[in-house]
Design brief:
The protein is mainly α. The protein has seven helices and two strands; from the N terminus they run ααααααβαβ. Strands 1-2 form a two-stranded parallel sheet.
């Protein structure tokens, strides 16, 4: 089964289609499989396909399983695409960073269900108003929006 995990979603779909149409059928051989999968992976895929066939799985069963794995990959990618990493600091040659305040305002204005903020330093004054004003407006517009903040509260030394 591990061999299938190394295949991309398009290759999984291609294999499933070949199995469904009869272009690919048992006994599975490297010479035929390598037209569908990268040659370096063909040996492992042949082993898995022949193992499944020996267990009684038909080409339709295997195709269904491959399509299921491909669908899971798509769903997983959609979840992955919803997360955006933003960092601050010095620009590094070749990095594709964006201005943090722009990204944060954009995220605040489009949030639908929750926002989690974790920061050691938080601006004050006009800068904070510009940034958190967007969040306050979004919270007013969407009462279901859950906002949690984990912030460092700076205190003078020995102050309780």
């Amino acid at each position: 089964m591990a061999a299938f995990l190394q295949l991309s979603r398009p290759v999984l779909v291609s294999l499933a289609t070949a199995l469904e149409t009869g272009r690919l059928h048992p006994p599975f051989t490297i010479s035929i499989i390598k037209t569908y999968v990268p040659e370096i992976l063909s040996g492992g895929i042949v082993e898995e396909l022949n193992r499944l066939n020996a267990m009684g799985a038909t080409s339709d069963h295997i195709a269904y399983t491959l399509r299921l794995l491909a669908a899971e990959r798509s769903a997983s990618q959609e979840v992955h695409d919803r997360v955006e990493l933003v960092w601050t600091g010095q620009e590094v040659v070749g990095s594709q960073s964006r201005d943090t305040s722009v990204v944060v305002r954009e995220l605040f204005s489009t949030a639908k269900s929750s926002i989690l903020i974790s920061s050691f330093a938080v601006d004050t004054g006009k800068k904070a108003q510009a940034l958190f004003g967007v969040l306050a407006s979004r919270m007013d517009a969407n009462l279901e929006l859950n906002v949690r903040m984990f912030l460092n509260v700076k205190r003078s030394h020995n102050r309780k």
